[in-house]
Amino acid sequence: ITMSILRAMVIETLRGNNEPRGVGILSAENPRGIKGEEHLNQERHNDLHDLLIKLGYDFHHTEGEYLGIPERAVVINGITMSELKALAQRFQQESFLFGPRSELRLYSAH
């Protein structure tokens, strides 16, 4: 997924796409669930951080683990499931969490 595709998704949403917005949790670290080197994980996390700022999302950093592997992640407010899925695919993630603030669910990125 390129930056222009992500930007187009945001513009489409702002023009009245009725897809519900919720909260999502995503990590850019450890692509495909395989533990990566720390410096590469830090670089990927920074890339996600910078991209979310460019796209104008409200987000907060958090930490967790996936398949027993610790990793940094972000909680993103006001995102649609398709926008979050595009980000998950861009950062080669197997899954992401999405739902209304009161009900998060795990979804496959494939």
Structural description of this entry:
The protein is of the alpha+beta class. 36% of the residues lie in helices and 33% in strands. It has helices spanning 3-14, 38-55, 81-90; strands spanning 21-26, 58-66, 69-80, 95-99, 105-108. The protein has a five-stranded antiparallel beta sheet. It is globular and about 40 Å long. The two termini are 13 Å apart.
Task: List the topology elements.
Layout lengths: L2 H12 L6 E6 L11 H18 L2 E9 L2 E12 H10 L4 E5 L5 E4 L2
Primary descriptors:
110 residues; alpha+beta; 5-stranded antiparallel sheet
What is the structure about, briefly put?
This protein is α+β, with helices and mostly antiparallel strands. Helices cover 36% and strands 33% of the residues.
The N- and C-terminal alpha carbons lie at a distance of 13 Å
Q: Share of helix among residues?
A: 25-40%
Question: Helical segment tally?
Answer: 3
Largest sheet: 5 strands, antiparallel
The SSE order reads: HEHEEHEE
Instruction: Give Rg in angstroms.
Output: 13 Å
What are the low-pLDDT stretches, counting only 5+ consecutive residues below 50?
none
Note the beta-strand portion. Answer: 25-35%
Query: What is the tally of beta strands?
Result: 5
Determine the structural class based on helices, strands and strand pairing.
alpha+beta
Strand order of the largest sheet: 2-3-1-4-5
Report mean pLDDT, rounded to a whole number: 87
Shape: globular
